[in-house]
Design brief:
Elements (H helix, E strand, L loop, with lengths): L1 E2 L10 H13 L6 E4 L6 H8 L4 E4 L3 H10 L2 E5 L16 E6 L14 E4 L7 H18 L19 H14 L4 H15 L5 H5 L1 H15 L2 H8 L3 H11 L3
Parallel strand pairs: 2-5, 2-6, 3-4, 4-5
Antiparallel strand pairs: 1-3
Length: 248
């Protein structure tokens, strides 16, 4: 248990603003609130920004949690277990903010909390995808010391893990589009040095080169005829490679 590092919380979502106002109003009351929702959607950062001085405890450690509830009238509980062994008297007259990665809550939890907020996933907050995307693009530019922020269609990103997925996709995009041929060679060298050792490795690893080469060529030039000319190989040879590699 202890005080968590203060973090800024970034959001322009009207849904998040509603939750924020509710928590802000709750600062003047000794009532308990529960935030539930998927991981990596900003629940902890939001609570930290509103209650920067409140002590925190990990709800997975029931012994420490019980002790913290006895010692504090204001407490933040992260990783709150919805089916834990709780006593309603431990919550009465206190300001408890609990955070859970669950996407629903059992009925008995109502007795512990005056307010229960369901925090929407990032996919449900398109305005925040753009807002956070701009922040992560700037971070990537600074981290990799690049002059340009390379374009990326955020609508195509898999947001299964919310902000973690968004940031990962942007950083990977920045790396992939600024990497030099010598770095590619070094990456391949390191990979092959670790992986080589089979009986038919040439055939096994050749698609690592051919697959992206042909896919990129077809995407760029639009036809096998044009690509075969660019690559300097027979059209039938290229057609055979496309079939063998399962390229659509």
């Amino acid at each position: 248990m202890g005080k968590e590092k203060i973090e800024l919380f970034y959001s322009t979502s009207t849904k998040i603003q509603y939750i924020t106002k509710g928590l802000e109003l709750g600062k003047s009351l000794f009532v308990s609130s529960l935030l539930i929702g998927e991981a990596n959607i900003g629940k902890k950062s939001l609570v930290k920004s509103i209650f920067p001085e409140a002590p925190w405890v990990d709800g997975r450690d029931m012994i420490k949690l019980k002790q913290a509830l006895k010692e504090h009238n204001e407490l933040i509980i992260c990783n709150f277990e919805l089916y834990g062994d709780y006593n309603i008297n431990d919550f009465n007259g206190k300001r408890i903010i609990a955070i859970s990665d669950a996407t629903y809550f059992p009925a008995h939890i109502d007795s512990l909390f005056a307010f229960i907020y369901t925090v929407p996933s990032l996919k449900e907050r398109p305005e925040d995808i753009k807002y956070l995307g701009d922040i992560f693009f700037k971070e990537a530019k600074s981290t990799f010391m690049t002059e340009d922020i390379l374009p990326l269609d955020l609508k195509d990103i898999d947001l299964t893990y919310n902000t973690k997925s968004l940031k990962k996709a942007i950083f990977e995009h920045q790396i992939y589009n600024t990497i030099t041929p010598d770095k590619i060679e070094q990456i391949l060298y390191n990979y092959f040095e670790k992986e080589l050792g089979g009986n038919n490795d040439y055939a096994k690893y050749l698609p690592i080169f051919e697959n992206p080469l042909i896919k990129a060529g077809l995407a760029k030039f639009g036809s096998q005829l044009k690509l075969s000319s660019i690559l300097g190989i027979n059209r039938n040879t290229l057609r055979k490679k496309v079939y063998e590699l399962g390229i659509n």
